[in-house]
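User: My instructor asked us to take a sequence, write out its structure as tokens, and then describe one feature of it. I'm not sure where to start. Here is the sequence I was given:
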Amino acid sequence: MDLFLQFLANGVVVGAFYALSALGLTLIFGLMRVVNFAHGEIYMLGGVAGWYFTTALGLNFFTALLVVAMVIAAFGWLVDRVLIERVRDKGEEAGILLTIGLSIFLANLTLLVVGPAPMKVAGPIEEGVIFLGPVVVTKLRLLAVGVGIALIVGVNVLIRMTRLGQAMRATFQDQMAASLAGIRTDHVYACTFALGCTLAAMAGMLLASIYSTQASIGGLVSLKSFVVVILGGMGSFAGAVAGGLLLGVAEAMWGGYVSTGMVDIIGFALVIVILLARPQGIFSTRVERA
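Assistant: Let's start with the prediction itself. The structure tokens for your sequence are:
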């Protein structure tokens, strides 16, 4: 039982970051219908930028996290306005090809600038452990998970209780009606993409303070984010959180009881099961596409 609780705690830690990263992806797809294959590279940029700000410039961790959020938000806004807006009405295939090209560009540019070596973000506190009964958790993991949960709650509040969130939900429900009501849908799209990129980048920096990051990590992160979104349901906020926790716990249990060498296969096995049993995802409902 002690081992089970320890594996469960490890899975919840990783699952919280999966959920935070997938939230950005589900926002972008759920509202904009853009399948963002560059999502993992945005995550990677957050970790690399966090490493640079904390190591090279010596900024405080939380100051660096705020700077990373602002820089990546501005970058995401520009990407939408300069690139994605040009293919918004040309079908999902154009958006897929565009974001695949962007992911290749960002990965290779980062590889050229910083090299292939892993980079670890300097954490905000000293390493140490906390005993929660039979479960051992590092202080850094607890703090990072707490920040991640605060970000998830903050995004939920933003979407449900602010004018921007209302505009996002209105645009998601009916883009034409939202435009007729005076909502600047182009501004909403840009802000949504910027918010999705910001969440991915902050997740990347937080996780890089626990493990590490490198230029080639984006592809795996994108795959896991898509797994989480499919598990929870496309465009479902609660589904992204539940899917992230489910994937994190499943990987931790498999790695603890079976083998760490094949832990990445668990996500794809879960996707197959979900697609067979509930194709719309855990929290989504069946809808008829016009």
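For the description part of your assignment, you could build on this observation: The mean pLDDT is 85. Try explaining in your own words what that tells you about the chain.
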